[in-house]
Structures are given as C-alpha cells and as structure tokens.
DNA sequence: CTGAAAGCGCTTACAG
DNA sequence: CTGAAAGCGCTTACAG
C-alpha cells in the first residue's frame, strides 16, 4: 500500500505539504505542487479514507435509515434509494443502507461515529427515531415529514398532487370522487405522515364539490385493492372516480372493480398517485398515474443533508415536489345516470 | 464523546484491557471484566468504528457495486439489495451502495481502503469489473456468474428453473414452447451471463420434445413485451406456451397477445420466471410465476463474502438456487387444433 | 492476567 | 510557502 509518506519522500516534501495539495487546503508553490502531483501519478497514490476520517472526524458516509423493505413490492422505493446514492456519490459521499427497526440498535449505530449524517425514510407523524436522532446530535434529513415543520425534509407535495388529480377528474365531469389510501398497523399518531396529509388534502380539494367524502384505507396488496373495490361498491356506490394513493393495491382495485361489474373507466375512473408510470402500464387498462418524483427527491434529500454538513445553507431546507400527471386509459367521462 | 480512555480511567485499567474485553480478544480476570463492563454501562460507551478500522485495517464495510438501477422497474432488485444489507448487518457489517459504471472511478474507490469486500451485481459473461477487482486484491463475491466458474458466486439456478418450467408446461400437454428473454445493448461476449445460461438451459430442456426452438429477445419494458407477442405470432405461430425470463416485459406480453386475439391461457400459456409473485398478481390473468429467491441470494452473497473475509471457508462458495413455481392463472391445457 | 508503547495513515494548529 | 509534531481513538505485539 502506498501512503502519503511515500509520496512525500519521492517529492522531497513533508507529508503536511502533500496533504495540502491533495485537499487544496493551503497555498502551495507551483513547482512544489507539480512535483507532488507527479509523485502521486507515478505511485498511483490514493488517500486512505479511513485515516482521513479519523484525523478529520468526518467520514463522508451518509446512512439511509429505513424499516424492513425486503418484502415490499414498492416500485418507488428503489428510485428513492438510488437517487440518494447517486446524489451522495456526486458530492463525494458514500451511502450506507441501515435496515433498522428498534431504536436500541439505532443508538448503537449513531454513537459509533461511522456516519456524518442520516437520511430517514418512512417518517411517521410522530416518530421516535427523530427524537433519537435529535438526541444524538447527528445531522439528518427526512424523506417525508413529521408533525413539526422545523426539521429539514424533502417530500412529495401531496396537497398539490391531490388538487391536480381532482382537477383532472373534474375536467372529465366527475363530482363524486373517492379516496383510497393505505392502512397501517401503526398505532394512532404514529402513522406515516403521508396518509394524514393525503386525507386532509383530499377533503380540501373535494369541498367545493359539495359531495360527501368517501375514504377507504386498505393494505398495500392486491387483496387490499380488491377489498377497496368492494367497500367502495357497498358504502359509496355513487362514486364515479377514485384517487388511489396506495401503489401496491392498484392492480387489485382494477381487478376487483371489474369483478363487481364496474368497468374501468366506463363506470369508474381511477388515478393512481405517487407511483411509477411503468407500474401503471402493467395494468389493463393502463392506469392514469401521477408519477412520484422519487429519483429527484432521493437526490435532493442527499443534497439537503450534505448542505447541512458543509454549512452551505442557513435555514433547514424544505423541499416539496408534486407528482406529475401521466395520462393512461383509466380515466374517462363521468357516466350519466 | 466518551472514549476508551474514559472507560479505562473509570475502571482503573489500561485501555488495552478495555479493548480486550470489548473484543473478547484476550482472557481477562472476572472482577476486572466486571469493572470494565460496569464502566461501559455507566458511561454509555460505544467504540469508535473509524478508529477501530484504522488500527485493525478492517472497516467491516461491504460495498454493493451495481450499474445505474435508478430507472429500472425491477421488483427483484430491491429484494437482492435488502437481502444483502440484512445479511451484512446481522454479521456486524455495513453495506454501502456504489452506483458505478466506468472503471476509472472504480479503481479510485477500491484503493481508498473504505471497504473490506465487494458484492458485484449484474455480472456479465466477460466482465471488466471482475478484472479490476482481481487486480485490486479486494475480496469479492458475485451475484451472477462470469464464464469462469472459479470465483465465488451466488446465482439463480437457471438450468433447474427452466427445466421445472418446461416440465410444468408439459404436464399441461404443451410441446411447442417458446422462450422470451431480454435484449441487451451490450456487445457480444459482454451480455449478462443470465441470458446465455437461460438460452442453453432452454435448448437442453426442449430437446426431448423434438420441436424446433423459438427464442425471442426484447427489451424489458411493456413495449418490449408487446413486440415479443407480435414476433411470436409472426415467426412462431405454432407455439402454445411461453417461458418468459424478462420481468419488465411480462405485462406487455399478455396485453400484446390478447390484442392479437390470443387469449391467455386458452390459446397461449405463460410462465414468468425470475420475478416476484406480487408482480405476477398485478397482471390479468394473474401470472404463473417462478419466484426469484432474491432475498435469500442477497443474504447468501453477503454471507459468502464475509466467510471469505473471515477465513471461514476453504473453497470459493458456489450457491445456486432455483426459482420456485407459484401457480397463477396463466397456464392452461395446450389447445387441441 | 495486565500494562506501556508503538503504530494505523492521515489532518491541522503552530512555528518559522 | 513549508515542516515538525501532536493527535484522531483504537489494536496489537511485546514484556512482565
């Protein structure tokens, strides 16, 4: 292994000077710099990042903290993760994956000094992991939001997304629009913030329509989707359109509706929000989706965290991006009865 | 920050002794050990992993090297990744994501000393990254295989998987079975090994049937799937069943077939291999799939690499697991004409 | 069984 | 503009 000492000897300088040119941290005479750069080239030297981390007490490693994602068929998740990994890489950081659930394990990890900062996914309205993070002093950024708005976050702009979805459906004449979200096993107050935000955005957006709200929460699976279809048929038969914010249930909702004799989109229009175009295309008929800006959000989350680490920014960054409408074949004119 | 020195002082021992009890690396008198453990508790001490890494020249970080996965709607990929992250975590290692394409960047990373070992995804038959890895001396394991069989790898057992698929279709009376794989932009000899292995397994498995082979390669998208449907109809109209090893094309193949008037499964049976049950269920009719053992393979890849790092194993581990058949509604009796 | 000390490969005040 | 030296927080022969 070639070290900084080897480079220094070959260039006839001290290791301090080598460090200065590598980091650009101090002015160095042009000839000296040239000698050092030549030596680095010739020896094919790379600085040891572990030693650098110990000496500078900065590891340039970011952790992505997430619950168990192993079993979930969630197309947007990998886009998030990869977006964050790319964003980090481009700024000279590495991203490590931390599949962590209990917070005992979490405090272990945080105190180890491995990471400079943390990205937190699947944030709950009230999230104990945020408290842990705050207590640990390790900088972090959220993908999603808690109830308090003073922490740095990036998130889907659900209000704008739902508003857009409702506007799109209204332009097709729909007035009775239902919402299908995701049921969670979390206790009250600890649900993903997403669900609460979606519901209140929905209530706001349909208020002008005068029709009563119709909200159904089911599991994020095909079975959940079928359940949603039958609950809609039984409890809200007047609804002519559905906004779905439950990626995993999308196929089941279409299949279930059809099984109950409701054609899509002739009898029931569907918009699937916060998902991917590719997933929508798999379904028959191809769903009109609102594509989650997952790759961008992942990147921006990494950026926000790194800005914070490097003291670039002043206020905690708050980034909101709405989903983009991608018309498919699942939205049609409201049926006249 | 509380250091080992703090613990040593409080327990009235040297830091060496503290190190011994933390690592279990040397026998320590019971009373001394108790004092040290108490001090650790009281101070809530956690060993600094960076310092440990520098001193021991082992970082306990593994890297997952993969091409750009950002855009791909591949349900099995995240299962792989998370499986590997879990496997690593359980053995006290961290997994970092390295989105790397050019190998200039790669040698930079390898020489930095950040990682103890590398997991390589999307392995090509002839893969320059493998040469780089070999040259760098950093231990690694493959997810997939190159042409040479002497490197440690875990992979789907495509031979067994295809054999199983053919047997399943034969039990329904099918004798003319086509194969749909994935087209790649890679130059000859640098394709993913998977494709070559699948094709030769297919040729072996259908040989006893006497029918001529029918192989179609398309892109892993809905459009690709539709293209496969029309090529099959035009070039291989006699085929009554398809084995699909192209997750992204599955929905398109079904839709395209139906659009051409071939019902699934009445006119055409389909098995989708190396995918997930959840993805199969999204499609109408629900596909009969052969589920990729992605979570296990991810875990086993991490295990194989760690075994290697810790000198546990002797021969390079070679792990092959076939996909498991999960019957859906897309396979039926061969039509009689 | 325990400790003093060297060393891992860097960074960073501090002098000059 | 450059260097000598301390220090980051551990591990690990080596003595005793």
Automatic annotation (TrEMBL), chains A, B:
<dbReference type="GO" id="GO:0000976">
    <property type="term" value="F:transcription cis-regulatory region binding"/>
</dbReference>
<dbReference type="GO" id="GO:0003700">
    <property type="term" value="F:DNA-binding transcription factor activity"/>
</dbReference>
<keyword id="KW-0804">Transcription</keyword>
<dbReference type="InterPro" id="IPR010982">
    <property type="entry name" value="Lambda_DNA-bd_dom_sf"/>
</dbReference>
<dbReference type="Pfam" id="PF13377">
    <property type="entry name" value="Peripla_BP_3"/>
</dbReference>
<dbReference type="InterPro" id="IPR028082">
    <property type="entry name" value="Peripla_BP_I"/>
</dbReference>
<feature type="domain" description="HTH lacI-type">
    <location>
        <begin position="2"/>
        <end position="56"/>
    </location>
</feature>
<dbReference type="Pfam" id="PF00356">
    <property type="entry name" value="LacI"/>
</dbReference>
<protein>
    <submittedName>
        <fullName>LacI family transcriptional regulator</fullName>
    </submittedName>
</protein>
<dbReference type="InterPro" id="IPR046335">
    <property type="entry name" value="LacI/GalR-like_sensor"/>
</dbReference>
<keyword id="KW-0238">DNA-binding</keyword>
<keyword id="KW-0805">Transcription regulation</keyword>
<dbReference type="InterPro" id="IPR000843">
    <property type="entry name" value="HTH_LacI"/>
</dbReference>
